[in-house]
Amino acid sequence: MFNDIGVFEIVTLVILAVLIFGPDKLPKVIQDVTRTIRKIRQFSDSAKQDIRNELGPEFKDFEFEDLNPKRFIRKQLENDDLGLKEIRNGFDLRKEMAEVADAVHGREGDAADDGGSRSGPPAASANGGGRVDMHKRPAKPAADEPPPFDADAT
């Protein structure tokens, strides 16, 4: 809980406690605080035991820490009754995305694997009336020609 408290912070807290409560009352305050923490822990343990007793024998392995969502999910994934590890290992997202991109750009799947050239989106055919020709590659503009300007995109 307090894993990131360093020596400087502890010394500061001790000095503040001495200044606030004084050296005479400080031992009594520490005893009261420890007694209160002990009572809270006893109350918590007895409440947990009461809940376990009320749940019955089928919940004898029940741990309250399992109610933490992260721990619950981790515990359920360790069981792996559904074969999730096999599904996760058999699915290659990069390969699937490459296949989809190749299909969209009209390239053959093996051409991309052999190091085929990648080009931009396919150009619309002149006689197709706005239809996209998947086999035609767009013409590259000349070196001194500015790129096309799309007024709708700006």
Automatic annotation (TrEMBL):
InterPro entries according to UniProt: TatA/B/E, TatB
Residues that span the membrane, as ranges: 6-22
Which regions form coiled coils? none
Q: Where is this region: Disordered?
A: 102-154
GO terms of molecular function: protein transmembrane transporter activity
Any Gene Ontology CC annotation: TAT protein transport complex
Main location class: membrane
* Compartments it resides in: Cell membrane; Membrane
The residue range of the signal peptide is: none
- Which BP terms in the Gene Ontology apply to this protein? protein transport by the Tat complex
The answer on whether this UniProt entry bears the keyword rRNA-binding reads: no
Keywords attached to this Swiss-Prot or TrEMBL record, sorted alphabetically, are:
Cell membrane, Membrane, Protein transport, Translocation, Transmembrane, Transmembrane helix, Transport
Membrane protein topology class: Single-pass membrane protein
- Please note every region of biased composition (Pro residues): 144-154
The record describes the protein's role as: Part of the twin-arginine translocation (Tat) system that transports large folded proteins containing a characteristic twin-arginine motif in their signal peptide across membranes. Together with TatC, TatB is part of a receptor directly interacting with Tat signal peptides. TatB may form an oligomeric binding site that transiently accommodates folded Tat precursor proteins before their translocation.
Task: Name the family the entry cites.
Answer: Belongs to the TatB family.
Instruction: Fill in the subunit field for this protein.
Output: The Tat system comprises two distinct complexes: a TatABC complex, containing multiple copies of TatA, TatB and TatC subunits, and a separate TatA complex, containing only TatA subunits. Substrates initially bind to the TatABC complex, which probably triggers association of the separate TatA complex to form the active translocon.
HAMAP family (UniProt xref): TatB (MF_00237)
Official protein name in the record? Sec-independent protein translocase protein TatB
Specify the species: Streptomyces longispororuber
The root-end lineage is: Bacteria, Bacillati, Actinomycetota, Actinomycetes, Kitasatosporales
